[in-house]
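To: structure desk
From: M.T.
Subject: fold request, one chain
Message: Could you run this one when you get a chance? Sequence is below, nothing fancy, just the single chain.
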Amino acid sequence: MIQMGNVRLKHVVLFLLLSHQLIMTSAVVTNNRLLLAVGLATGAILSSYNGSYDWSPSTLAVLTAIILVTLLPTAINKDIAFQSPLVPTAQALSGRLENTNTESSSCTAPGYSLHPVLGCIKLSTSTTALTPEQWVAKCAEDGGKLILINSATENQALVDFLKSDPKDVVIQGSRVSVSSPWTTDDGQPLPFVGEFQGISNLAGTLRIIFTSSGKWANVNPTNVFPNAVCEIPV
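Reply: Done. Structure tokens follow.
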């Protein structure tokens, strides 16, 4: 029987780990788990033959367990080969590029731009002032809707968006009575209600205007306004 020489077990383990990474890279590219298992077994045999290492039954059992675990399908993906986090597959790279380009490629309507916080938006101006309901229809002509403010962060982002040319704009938000909740144009509760300037509990049906200061204002739905911000979902 071959006896233990100068090569110790830790050297053999290091050799196996290096062999594992090299073969794993090839296995990912070729989508073949079997290649990985064969590579591990070959590395073990070479280390035993060239390194004068005596593989005891317990060590062989460990190696066998490693190979079996390598060959077993994972719960995450039973159809493709083992994937190293260091070597992304072509499909993963393609998916990342697609996600990066999806939003920008879908914000192509004339006058719209992709804002990092507010999404695909447009400051719409009409030479003839329109009621809020008419602005709803005008945004719909572009395939969009009046912008919906979902948070304080988005509220501030809209202030910054209008900073170069401050003006009051029509946004989503209405209610039918003083006791009714503010709702979106789809009839759902507003996800965020900003700070109102002036009196916020006026009676009757109301719409919301976003002022250049970032505060909101209730207005009669028959009032007309020259500006609104539209958005197109992306």
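Reply (cont.): Helices lie at 9-30, 33-50, 57-71, 90-106, 132-141, 152-161. Let me know if you need anything else for the meeting.
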